[in-house]
Amino acid sequence: MPPKTRRSQFASVIRASGDLLTVGAAAAALGCDRVAAAKTLARWAGQGRLRRLRRGLYAVVPLAARSGDRAIEDPWRLVPELFSPGYVGGVTAAHHWDLTEQLFRSVFVFTARPVRSRDVEIEGSPFVVRHRAERLLFGTRPVWRGTARVDVSDPHRTIIDMLDEPSTGGGIRQVADCLRAYLASKDADTAVLLDYAARLGNGAVYKRLGFLLERDGRPGPTLDACRKRLTRGNVRLDPALPSPRLISRWRLWVPEAWLGAGRD
């Protein structure tokens, strides 16, 4: 094939797909089957025009890129291709919604795809991945990162996810700080918060939420709702921390440092 034709092929694929290419998108742009498209993408990668990120997924290498530079600078843009259906959540979403100033290098992602490893690195960008059943992918909002539409948990879902699994919020102390910031924000809506907790269906959320509200001296309907919705069994405030003391009214094991306002 003449070089000019090859250049026009490459340009047509980029126009159709942008700077993230899949075999399926390339096949549609080139008017060929997937096998031929995969061979073409592999050839372009061998020529240094593309960088293979994962099987079937390539990124266009910028003309000014140096060896070792990332082809995709914003890791959020990889989320739809790598983890859809899913969303950016946890402490990454908390930072996006100004619930924390802490910015973690890893991007926290919830996905309905099978999760083989909870820690994934793609082209130098680390992702912390958690599985969610597809029916639980609610409470998200779309944001645009360049040409990529990325779903991110809304402020209410962000808090609920972190209460469900404190490690996704950077630990319970960070989660408590984010909860305070949420309750002080214009987005705060405790009715939505409780609705999301019910839809998620993990009783530990009510135990952690009620304990944190009581500890901060926040009486009211939300605290009462948490008391009424307590499930059986005891859980840890943060599964990652030694928690020798049981707060029986919240059915919650807590670290010694967290005793005080929440003490029996």
Describe, in short, the structure shown.
This protein is an alpha+beta fold and 264 residues long. The chain contains ten helices and twelve strands.
Strands, helices and their partners?
Blueprint: H1 3-17, E1 20-22, H2 23-30, H3 34-46, E2 50-54, E3 57-60, H4 79-83, E4 86-88, H5 90-96, E5 107-111, E6 119-122, E7 125-131, E8 140-145, E9 148-153, H6 155-164, H7 172-183, H8 190-200, H9 203-215, H10 221-228, E10 235-236, E11 245-247, E12 252-254
Parallel strand pairs: 5-7, 10-12
Antiparallel strand pairs: 1-3, 2-3, 4-5, 6-7, 8-9, 11-12
Number of domains: 2
The main pleated sheet reads as:
4 strands, mixed
**Which structural class fits the helix and strand makeup?**
alpha+beta
Number of helical segments?
A: 10
Low-confidence stretches: none
Q: Please give the order of strands in the largest beta sheet.
A: 4-5-7-6
> What distance lies between the first and last C-alpha atoms, to the nearest angstrom?
79 Å
Instruction: Tell me the number of strands.
Output: 12
The shape is elongated
The average pLDDT score comes to 89
